[in-house]
């Protein structure tokens, strides 16, 4: 049966369903539709569904090609979206792209969204269908959650009546289509034949390597990949803190350090946000706590979580040079998205930084050109401010008129969390400058 499904995928006669139309699912649905498949998208957000069905993009920020692609595939009738799971009854391949949040207290994954999807698929899953989980999940989840959940809801047996695969996403906001098409993918199948069926699907739009694997390996690869990056960022942040204490410039240190063969110190900064890196390290270790006592990964999380709070320390220290206390001071905060030139504010470091400012009695005014809640002019937030803080490296901030900005501020204090403002230029404009790793 899996061989026939592979043949249908190759011939592009297999109908595709994509559940979850966010930063992962919507580009996947569009690329499959653009490859010639008939695609049905499912999402719980009726407004999002309506926007997509009009051929418009619900994704803000600078996202090259996505608006045009949505308009094209919807206009051609190859992508239709709905909230109704009944539309999946004749679908042969289903790709699931829903969130896997981590509990703030226990750091254990919550599978509420995934379990809901598995339950709703129970009454509509076609015989012989292939279900692919693109959501990032803790190693062991396919065996512990997905297989028993889908078997319970369908009354069928995985590997006989339907097939399962795990091909974890590797997208990044701002580079959605580029990463989707160019990056290599780990294709985890319940059996080698299932993995080959998945490769037949993904090779329609992925130009990177498609490496077959088993389910568990695929789960580990994705979570370990982001845990690795988190540890690397934590190293850069800790070196930055050391440089601050010693009076050195971390960016000079980094430049020279990276001249050594095999060294690639990442950029330090005001915090790590987004939907992946803050949670995926916890997912990696979630199901091994009885056997392994991890030290490095939790420590890296602690270092990176502390950086937005350290930004407040920098503000407080810079204000003190002018004899101003933080309590009661107005602080203009530029940037709320977790990544430059996008509207993605999931787990935003700015959110933690603002909360700490307010806890210490400061008055925070936030601006972001892409996040709807904070779309206002820079003038509105910097007028009368005692300090301006750069939390996100949005391109528009790099050309900000520092002299004009300083003229309307009560005190010229500038704190740079992303190294986007030249220190000499800031000081020439009369600012007291403080940056991560460069005070």
Description:
The protein is an alpha/beta fold. It is 42% helix and 13% strand. It has 17 helices and 13 strands. The chain has helices at residues 2-11, 25-34, 46-53, 66-75, 112-121, 141-154, 176-182, 192-202, 215-246, 250-257, 280-285, 296-320, 349-359, 378-382, 395-398, 402-407, 423-428; strands at residues 16-19, 39-42, 79-82, 93-96, 130-133, 163-166, 185-189, 210-214, 330-334, 363-367, 387-390, 413-416, 432-435. An eight-stranded mixed beta sheet has the order 3-2-1-4-5-6-7-8, sandwiched between helices. A five-stranded parallel beta sheet has the order 10-9-11-12-13. Helix 5 (112-121) packs parallel to helix 6 (141-154), helix 9 runs parallel beside helix 12 and helix 12 crosses helix 13. The model has no long low-confidence stretch (mean pLDDT 97).
Describe how the helices and strands are arranged.
Layout: H1 2-11, E1 16-19, H2 25-34, E2 39-42, H3 46-53, H4 66-75, E3 79-82, E4 93-96, H5 112-121, E5 130-133, H6 141-154, E6 163-166, H7 176-182, E7 185-189, H8 192-202, E8 210-214, H9 215-246, H10 250-257, H11 280-285, H12 296-320, E9 330-334, H13 349-359, E10 363-367, H14 378-382, E11 387-390, H15 395-398, H16 402-407, E12 413-416, H17 423-428, E13 432-435
Parallel strand pairs: 1-2, 1-4, 2-3, 4-5, 5-6, 7-8, 9-10, 9-11, 11-12, 12-13
Antiparallel strand pairs: 6-7
Helix pairs in contact: 1-8, 2-4, 5-6, 9-12, 12-13
